[in-house]
Specification:
The protein is of the alpha/beta class. It has 19 helices and 25 strands. Strand 21, helix 18 (535-544) and strand 22 (548-550) form a beta-alpha-beta unit.
């Protein structure tokens, strides 16, 4: 009996003749961990005192948060860097791009090889006829340590694309047509091999687009028999001649699925479900707020070139944001050399450094509540790319829609872009107007137990770290108070309403963040008494109506838990000994405090 492509690859890497359903240990030629999951891989290895089987076949790829703009991602990246230096492992750092693309372009993976990563779209490797799998932290740690993992040989389905799409259709449209027919689980548990007259003509970028979205069809992998162009590319990338792996003529398939792409027109997935696919024409006129071109599915040079042809000589519609993220730094440079970056910037697009972008929370591509986005990504699950709605389409359609301001086919871009209606607030606004709010009753005398924070120059990052700056709900802020101040990380769990903080000079130095005041209000802290305050912090507290009093209490011998009284009208402070000392609380400050804040009337 003949073998399918995946059966041949697994047989070759397990040294035995395999068949569907069999569980075998397979050698992994290249094993990678991303900044997402990489630190957990390191932890697993260290916790279990595991070795590294072959550092030369082991990689870290930082593609989820290439800017290191999130503290947790930055920490994970640094954990991986330090471990890589210790073990002699290569790192594709934040300047490199998407790991699965780097595996192909860097010649690490070639036709017939095996590759695993903490990336659910590692099956992109099917584009070159290689085995690629996304796996969890434990699996990848096993692969790092021993160079192999167990795997269940999947049955293979044969997908035949019948007919030829229209000239306007792209590989993304073919992929969406496959999704429409197969649904979100049509390939569940299967490997697929893709055939058809149109397949022979697909370039590597197009094959990557289709293979990437096998995940959205539930598939383990969608494999393409490599054509000569792919073989030549992989030979050049790896620096040695490579050969493809092809199914035997008498290979046994679970089934054959025929997908009619004759005359196929541009397609689009509606929000929430990649498989909810319709003709773009049926959605024409849908108002959008943003557009995204990139991701592992459509971030190759050919994808960006197609977008540039639409954008050349045009600009993005007013009020619409177009974000473009190349898949790798090499693609970025290729766009620069070809003049595409000038096209993008002239069109008023934002071009980011290479990486995953909107699919990962750490980079450009996310949208906000009520925002409608057209995207070349592979997923539009609710919340995946932000809190708005995401439509999936080809780079050409996304570029055309960005220019038009509405979902639009490239040949139907209007002479004038469609603007937003003015005067309407799109998000639900249930807050009452200031004049409708009852006046606050605010006491002139405060009594509370003290916390002695015997330090000077406590800055706003210590009070409320910048990694939490996106929080706007005061109720959420209290839990993060002082969590970046050494020795006080658990303050929020100990604080009680009415508590008073006593500290030293220059409290609130640093940035202008209002959260460094609001976090105390969130916990119910009644006042902060410091010898002096940072200038911006002082204004923020006064304008919010939060009591801060300038007085030197650290020299008074107070201890945690003692109770003091503060008279805001006089600024005086009564200690447990009944001694009264002066403090500063101005008339303007008192007026704003009484009103409940500067903006209250």
């Amino acid at each position: 009996m003949g073998k399918t492509i995946i059966e041949k690859i697994i047989s070759d890497h397990s040294d035995q003749d395999v068949s569907p359903g069999q569980i075998v240990d397979i050698r992994i030629d290249v094993r990678a961990a991303r900044d997402f999951g990489g630190a957990n891989v390191v932890k697993n290895i260290r916790d279990h005192a595991l070795p590294i089987a072959d550092p030369a076949r082991t990689l870290f790829t930082f593609d989820c948060n290439p800017g290191g703009s999130d503290q947790k991602y930055a920490t994970n990246q640094q954990v991986c860097r330090e471990f890589a230096r210790q073990e002699g492992i290569s790192v594709y750092d934040i300047d490199a791009g998407i790991g699965t693309h780097l595996a192909i372009d860097g010649g690490h993976a070639v036709p017939g090889s095996t590759f695993v990563s903490t990336d659910s779209h590692a099956n992109i490797l099917g584009a070159i006829g290689a085995f690629g799998q996304g796996m969890g932290d434990v699996d990848i740690a096993q692969a790092f340590a021993y160079g192999k993992v167990w795997f269940k040989v999947p049955p293979t389905v044969r997908i035949v694309l019948e007919g030829r799409p229209s000239a306007a259709a792209t590989a993304k449209d073919i992929t969406l047509a496959m999704l429409r027919q197969l649904g979100a689980n049509g390939l569940l548990g299967f490997a697929a091999e893709v055939y058809g007259d149109v397949v022979d003509e697909l370039d590597l970028a197009s094959r990557i687009t289709i293979s990437s979205m096998a995940t959205e069809m539930g598939g383990i992998i969608a494999l393409f028999p490599p054509n000569q162009a792919v073989l030549d590319f992989c030979s050049a990338a790896s620096g040695q001649p490579v050969e493809g792996v092809f199914a035997d003529p008498d290979a046994e398939y679970h089934s054959t699925i025929r997908i009619d792409v004759e005359g196929l027109t541009p397609q689009m997935s509606r929000p929430g479900h990649p498989e909810d696919v319709v003709d773009v024409a049926s959605l024409s006129g849908t108002k959008i707020g943003s557009a995204f071109i990139g991701s592992c599915t459509n971030g190759r040079f050919e994808d960006l070139q197609a977008a540039a042809e639409i954008l050349r000589g045009r600009t993005v519609a007013p009020g619409v944001v177009l974000k473009i993220v190349p898949s790798t730094d090499a693609v970025w440079k290729q766009c620069l050399d070809a003049g595409l970056m000038d096209v993008f910037k002239d069109a008023r697009a934002l071009v980011s450094n290479a990486g995953c972008a909107g699919c990962a929370a750490g980079q450009v591509g996310q949208n906000g509540p009520g925002e409608v986005t057209v995207s070349t990504g592979n997923r539009n699950f609710a919340g995946k790319q932000g809190k708005g709605e995401v439509y999936l389409a080809s780079p050409a359609v996304v570029a055309a829609s960005a220019v038009a301001g509405i979902v639009c086919l490239p040949e139907e871009i209007p002479a004038e872009p469609v603007a937003f209606d003015s005067g309407a607030y799109s998000m639900d606004d249930t807050s009452a107007r200031v004049e409708d709010l009852p006046p606050k009753e605010r006491p002139a005398r405060l009594e509370g137990r003290v916390w002695i924070v015997d330090r000077d120059n406590i800055d706003t990052d210590m009070i409320f770290h910048n990694r939490y700056l996106t929080i706007t709900d005061i109720a959420e802020m209290g839990q993060y108070t002082f969590d970046n101040l050494e020795g006080w990380e658990d303050f929020s769990s100990k604080a009680q309403p009415g508590d008073i903080i006593v500290t030293g000079k220059n409290f609130g130095a640093g940035s202008s963040r209002q959260q460094a005041v609001d976090c105390f209000e969130s916990l119910g802290v009644s006042a902060v008494i410091a010898e002096s305050f940072g200038a911006i912090y002082e204004r923020n507290a006064i304008n919010k109506g939060f009591p801060i009093v300038a007085a030197d209490l650290l020299s008074q011998g107070l201890t945690d838990g003692q109770v003091i009284e503060v008279d805001l009208e006089s600024g005086s402070i009564t200690l447990p000994t009944r001694k009264t000392i002066p403090g500063a609380f101005s008339d303007v400050q008192m007026d704003i405090y009484r009103r409940g804040g500067l903006l209250s009337r």
